[in-house]
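Re: the request from the purification team.
They wanted to know what the chain is likely to look like in 3D before they choose a buffer screen. I agreed to run a prediction and write the result into the notebook, where they can find it.
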Amino acid sequence: MSQARTGGSLAIRVSVIAALAGLLFGLDIAYVNGSLDLISKTFHLTTATKGEVAGMLLIGAAIGALFSGTLSRKFGRKKVLILASLIFTVFILLGVVAPTFEIFLISRFIVGLAVGIASFVAPLYLSEVAPPKIRGGLIAMYQFMITIGIFLMFLSNSALASTNSWRIMLLVVVIPAAIMLIGCLTLPESPRWFILQGKHGEAEIVLTKIRNTKEEVDLEMSEMKEATKDKASALKLLKHKWFWKVLILGAMLQAFQQFTGMNAFMYYSTQIFQQAGFSNPAVATIVVGLVNMLTTILAIKYVDKFGRKPILYFGLTLLFISAFFVGFVFKTHYHVVNGVGIMHLSAALQWSTLFFCLVFIFGFAISMGPIIWIICSEIQPLEGRDLGITVSTMTNWICNAILGTYAVIWLTYHPGNTFFAFGAVCVVCVFFTMMFVPETKGVTLEEMELKLRSGAKLKNIGA
């Protein structure tokens, strides 16, 4: 029994360290919220150039994700995680001391490269080391770390607001970056990467450390060897229709995740609450971060109990209802005069708007946030996993960059229509999930791959 506890606890510890990449992801995307006005004053930014502060990091993330698969395939998951954490540490410090806006944007871009790399490698690594029965929860740990990072950054920015220094606010991020760097040095390499390199002995050694019993090790070794029996490069897999199906599915899910509008909240919630008339929008933003973080705990707890798809349906329903309510409030009460948004709400409407904003956060944090990352890291075949997750992660960041760059403009001039559009995306995503998304709960990665290769419909390759 002690061996079982040791193997399980080690798998969890390894997963927590890898998920620290999500913490840095959350810290970096939330940094803009609360510091943007200070950055704007330092560098004399316009509305358009304000969007570049968030957008440049996200463009870097999209490019980083593009090359992540190649790096991960060649050098291994562990080394690439170490590289990402090193870039985080060095170039966040460059941003802190940046003398000009151009150098600050360069630092944001290079940190974005690290964010993109980490957002690819961390869920991939987690999916490959986690036991099947708790795989969903451990991959969701990555999303949970993102929410912790967002919440901590909201708190930190609020606490440091009196300093009037965006540089001090950014300096806070260096500490977890250094912790991640040290933690990643202790990680084992992914056993599935060892299999891809033909190093079966090394793969078995790692599995023996992170699995409960020899039977589990033998079964996984057998399944991994079977999955790579007819070894082919990822590019050769593009000849197969079944591989294109999961490539497109992963990309579509990540696009849906972004265009539900959650990250528009994460970047610009302070502005949204200012427009709604709150006298202290920073407090409302902290509450948003807290709800986002606590709700993700529910996803971790229940994703392997209830499954992926039922939680997706539940969350998307909440997203649709709340987006349309908030959209209606802005559509009927918000006006732009001389480039400035004006809205006068009664106390009841103010609090109702806050309530439905929190429902929106709850709906995303329990469903589209963690579960999309889980599914995208589960559905790709072993030989094509680097390419497949590269495509889905890069799609996420491209869509995220669009939101980060332009949402500030949309929310300034057309906030009502913007929320209506987010709600419409949720409706479309419900039907897409019904028709194409598999239930992956409790199914091994290799079992899904065998069904996929045999020609099963996408929604039938899981449980």
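For the purification team: The first helix runs from residue 2 to 43.
Please add any questions underneath this entry.
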